[in-house]
Amino acid sequence: MTRFVLLAGFAMVVFGGLAGSSQPPKGDDKKDPQAKFEPRSKPGEGQKFLEKFVGDWDVVKTFHPRTGDPVRGTGTCRQTMIHAGRFLQSEFTFGTGAEKTTGTGLIGFEPETGAFTSSWVDSRQTRMSFRQSGEKFDGKKIVLVGKALGEAARDARRSQTVTTLEEDGKTIVHRQHAIDAEGKERLVMELVLTRRPDSPKPNK
Fold first, then answer.
1. pTM
2. Are 88 and 81 in contact (CB under 8 A)?
3. Are 73 and 95 in contact (CB under 8 A)?
4. % of the chain beyond a pLDDT of 70
């Protein structure tokens, strides 16, 4: 008899708790229960700036080694806003045939902090690259500092990338600099993207 009472009491607690948890959430959580833990955020001024990058582009990539002449290559890039205008996705292609390489960039902006965060992956290696703003967006250029995760952060080389939009939106210039221990910058790579004539110009 005692065992039956204990089991009955246990059942009331368990199923009573489940019944209580099945009640629909109140207010806005009823429509979007995930918002209680991950509040929604809307695009901000950073996304408006990124929208100007949308389109098809011809690319000239210049690598500056420590010694010797710069090495140049050409390619193409298609940039689109994804996830309801929250992120800019960039699809790069360089070379042809066996020498062909591809790369994918993704960058977003957090209105709350005024910072951009980007990621990069390509067909040359399995490592992912991450960058983030060190200061708030000034409305004119994107300045990103290289970031590393975990133990790799201890030995990561310091770098900074500056992106500007020039010639009334017809040209995008990325310049990546390595930064030594004394804070001196050295230009490592430059990407110049020129909007293709057949690419529709995004709304300002």
1. 0.77
2. yes
3. yes
4. 77
Collapsed DSSP state (helix, strand, coil) of residue 165: strand
Q: Rounded to 5 degrees, what are φ and ψ at 30? A: -65, -35
Sequence length of the chain is 204
Structure tokens at 70: 């710069």
Question: Residue 177 and residue 46: Cα distance in Å, rounded?
Answer: 23
Q: Which amino acid is at 110?
A: E
**Do the Cβ atoms of 53 and 88 come closer than 8 Å?**
yes
Q: Where are the alpha helices (DSSP H) in the chain?
A: 2-21, 45-50, 152-155
pLDDT at 86 over 90: yes
When pLDDT is averaged across residues 59-68 and rounded to a whole number, the result is 95
Please give the Cα distance from 92 to 57 (Å, whole number).
Answer: 9
The listed CATH number (3.30.9.10, 2.40.128.20, 3.30.70.2860, 3.30.365.10) that belongs to domain 45-195: 2.40.128.20
Give the start-to-end residue ranges of the domains of the chain.
Answer: 2-36, 45-195
Mean pLDDT of 119-134: 94
Residues 175-200: tens digit of each pLDDT: 999 998 888 999 999 999 999 998 87
Q: Residues near 87 by Cβ (< 8 Å), separated by ≥ 6?
A: 81, 106, 107, 108
Phi, psi of 149 (to 5 degrees): -105, 150
Query: Rounded distance, CA 173 to CA 171, Å?
Result: 7
